[in-house]
């Protein structure tokens, strides 16, 4: 595992989460370009930071490359198939990123800053992963959620990142509501995972700290 690899991934995730609101407010680039550019940056940094073997690197590069191509095609042609494929490749990449990050954090033999960064990255990756799932469901079935902007609006991606983290943290403002059974199942699954993940992380950190303290003692 690279030293401080999760620090770079954490920076990429933070930029992805706060970049769209900042770019929208500053109006530096066209609104339709904001999300694809942030996704491409996240894919590129994600591959570099999580590749702990040549096999993982090759798989990550293949998925990220496909995701970048699909996002560019979706950006310029604005066709539904390209949008769906770009979401699908992003979902697969994020699922792989969560799996690799979880392995690296769980099987690390010491408690250091990079491991804590990794635990934070997994939490943020879960939120982004679910936002992609929500966005895909909304495209497939616009009536699955109440209070959401239509799939054709350029602000659609940002609203699902917001909704995902509101659900992951069990905050639940209620401005966007899951209506269909599938949407509700997806929402409560995320809430359950968010609660259990925090409990697991706290237990992991306490256990690792206790083990190191006992070795030092």
| Distance between the amino and carboxyl termini | 28 Å
Q: Roughly how much helix do the residues carry, as a percent range?
A: over 70%
Give the strand tally: 2
What's the number of structural domains? 1
Strand content: under 5%
Approximate shape: globular
Question: In this structure, how is the largest beta sheet organized?
Answer: 2 strands, antiparallel
Radius of gyration, taken over Cα atoms and rounded to an integer in Å: 18 Å
Class from secondary-structure proportions: mainly alpha
Uncertain runs are none
Strand order of the largest sheet: 1-2
List the secondary-structure elements in sequence, H or E: HHHHHEHEH
Number of helices: 7
Mean pLDDT: 81
Short account of what is shown:
The chain is mainly α and 217 residues long. It has helices at residues 5-26, 31-50, 54-77, 80-106, 113-140, 156-168, 181-216, and strands at 145-146, 177-178.
């Amino acid at each position: 595992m690279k030293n401080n690899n999760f620090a770079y991934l954490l920076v990429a995730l933070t930029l992805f989460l706060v970049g769209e609101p900042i770019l929208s407010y500053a109006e530096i680039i066209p609104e339709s370009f904001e999300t694809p550019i942030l996704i491409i940056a996240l894919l590129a940094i994600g591959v570099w930071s999580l590749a702990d073997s040549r096999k993982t690197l090759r798989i990550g590069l293949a998925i990220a490359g496909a995701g970048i191509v699909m996002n560019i095609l979706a950006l310029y042609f604005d066709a539904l198939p390209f949008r769906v494929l770009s979401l699908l490749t992003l979902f697969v990449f994020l699922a792989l990123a969560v799996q690799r990050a979880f392995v690296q954090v769980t099987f690390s033999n010491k408690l250091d800053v990079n491991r804590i960064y990794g635990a934070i990255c997994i939490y943020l990756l879960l939120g982004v992963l679910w936002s992609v799932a929500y966005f895909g469901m909304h495209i497939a079935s616009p009536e699955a959620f109440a209070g959401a902007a239509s799939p054709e609006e350029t602000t659609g991606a940002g609203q699902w990142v917001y909704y995902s983290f509101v659900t992951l943290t069990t905050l639940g403002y209620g401005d966007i509501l899951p209506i269909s059974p599938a949407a509700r199942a997806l929402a409560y699954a995320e809430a359950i995972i968010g609660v259990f993940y925090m409990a697991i992380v706290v237990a992991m950190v306490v256990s690792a700290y206790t083990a190191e303290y006992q070795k030092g003692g």
